[in-house]
Design goal:
The chain has 493 residues and is mainly alpha-helical. It contains 20 helices and eight strands. A two-stranded antiparallel sheet has the order 1-2. It has a two-stranded antiparallel ribbon with strand order 3-4.
Length: 493
């Protein structure tokens, strides 16, 4: 839009320019607003004041606001505060927003001063102007439907915005949970597929004891399910709303009957399990529930990043690394090295996790910065929260579709590393003693000979006994491998 308000950027004559504008007034003064738009003077001032991210509000918080404004109109009508014609027009305008219309008229930046008043008024003005049209009037004629007196009736930014933030978080978390359940299923499938593949386990990046590749993937699936359960618990807190508390939680300017009905009506209209907070003052003052959700999202991101790290290590090589698994080749890995393929999907999962951890710090600090009856920093909390949930869901989606499901095992390589590792000496230790086992391990590392070769040469165990002790299942399950041999050894003595 140019400075004259022509949407196509073309200059027109003075008369035409006047026709393209309407004049609106707020407590600051008057301002020209493009005739074609549904937002009003307060939205326009906010858009000019807060040019921060260059981004638009998340579509889901716009939808959440539409549900809230519709529920408020319905409730105010039920209790006799709002004329039915006006309430119906507001409800219809909200329905259009929920259909995806009018979203372009939500012009304020996600990061804004004023505790969210800008986005609340943006919604109030868009809904009011569309309701005015529905009733046969012209945009800007707020004598028909007023953004404050009608659309915002019985409400305050201080109960509307936290409610919208919680409803939005719930919807985004639901999508994230669905993706995490897909990941859990995919990991379980790989656990079953790789259950017979013996590989070397490592602690502190040093050879430890054998483990089955399937056991590693099963452990990943368990960790993901724990994250899902942790998220479920955090989501419960998002269902408790301060709606009806208005400015500071005392419910000023909200009819008593409205106060009782607003949350049940909102729950019914949105199809969400929502309840009103027991103490509306507490629910208005404190944002610790968002910290809890952010913490759960961060914990999940950390889990995913660790899994991604493991996959990068196990697939390293292909010739000079671990080379235990193969990740699907998704794209060329180098502009200079022909044939190089990088683990790009695990790498993007790592980066999403790093960003989420940073967002969690921001959310924590913003929640802590509240003062007295209100926290003014909800916009940055929501900006970071929605980004964290969305990006994690997208990361999980590509992790499943472009990585996990296509992983294959290099069984021969895995077995070779086990058989040539000093780590298998741990399974042999009960049969030859710790001290003797340590000496064999040192010799193996010094000479490069295998543990098996050294034990056979010294006659400590025979081939059959070694095979029994080093049987993969025995080494990767609780207990002493080939325990029955210990009885025979004691009898020999």
């Amino acid at each position: 839009m140019d400075t004259k308000g022509n949407m196509d950027g073309k200059n027109g004559n003075t008369e035409m320019e006047k026709e393209n504008y309407r004049t609106e007034e707020d407590s600051i003064g008057t301002k020209a607003v493009p005739e074609s738009v549904y937002y009003g003077v307060q939205s326009l001032r906010a858009a000019e004041n807060f040019r921060i991210t260059g981004l638009n509000m998340h579509p889901e918080i716009i939808n959440s606001l539409a549900y809230i404004k519709k529920a408020a109109a319905v409730t105010n009508c039920e209790v006799g505060i709002l004329d039915r014609k006006i309430a119906d027009a507001i409800a219809k305008a909200c329905d259009e927003i929920l259909e995806g219309k009018l979203h372009k008229d939500f012009i304020v930046d996600p990061i804004q001063g004023g505790a969210g008043t800008s986005i609340n008024m943006n919604a109030n003005e868009v809904i009011a102007n569309r309701a005015i049209e529905i009733l046969g009037g012209h945009k800007g004629d707020y004598s028909i439907v007023n953004p404050n007196d009608h659309v915002n009736c019985g409400q305050s930014t201080n109960d509307v915005i936290p409610t919208a933030g919680k409803m939005t978080s719930l919807r985004l978390l639901k999508n994230l949970k669905e993706e995490l359940l897909r990941l859990h299923k995919a990991l379980l499938a790989k656990a079953e597929e790789f259950d017979h593949v013996i590989k070397m386990g490592r602690t502190q990046m040093q050879d430890a004891v054998p483990i089955r590749l399937g056991q590693e993937f099963r452990a990943y699936s368990v960790a993901i399910m724990r994250d899902i359960r942790r998220m479920d618990k955090a989501m419960e807190e998002m269902c408790t709303l301060n709606m009806g508390g208005t400015a500071v939680g005392t419910g000023i300017n909200a009819d008593a009957a409205y106060l009782r009905r607003i949350v049940p009506n909102l729950a019914e209209l949105s199809g969400m399990e929502l309840v009103q907070a027991f103490d509306l003052i507490d629910a208005t003052q404190n944002l610790d529930s968002f910290v809890a959700v952010s913490g759960a999202v961060k914990a999940c991101a950390v889990t995913l990043s660790k899994i991604a790290n493991d996959l990068r290590l196990m697939s390293s090589g292909p010739r000079t690394g671990f080379g235990e698994i193969n990740l699907p080749a998704r794209q060329n890995g180098s502009s200079i090295m022909p044939g190089k393929v990088n683990p790009v999907i695990p790498e993007v999962v790592n980066q999403v996790a790093f960003n989420i951890i940073g967002n969690d710090v921001t959310i924590t600090m913003a929640a802590e910065a509240g003062q007295l009856e209100l926290n003014a920093f909800e916009p940055i909390i929501f900006y970071c929260m929605f980004q964290s949930i969305d990006t994690l869901a997208y990361a999980v989606q590509t992790f499943v579709d472009n990585c996990i499901t296509g992983i294959t095992a290099n069984e021969d390589r895995c077995r070779y590393l086990v058989e040539n590792s000093v780590g298998i000496i741990t399974a042999i230790c009960p049969h030859v003693g710790y001290q003797r086992a340590a000496e064999i391990a040192k010799t193996a590392m010094k000479t490069g000979e295998s543990v098996r070769t050294l034990i056979l040469r010294e006659g400590l165990l025979d081939e059959k006994e070694l095979d029994e002790i080093l049987e993969p299942l025995h080494m990767t399950e609780p207990g002493i491998s080939a325990k029955e041999l210990l009885k025979k050894e004691r009898l020999k003595k």
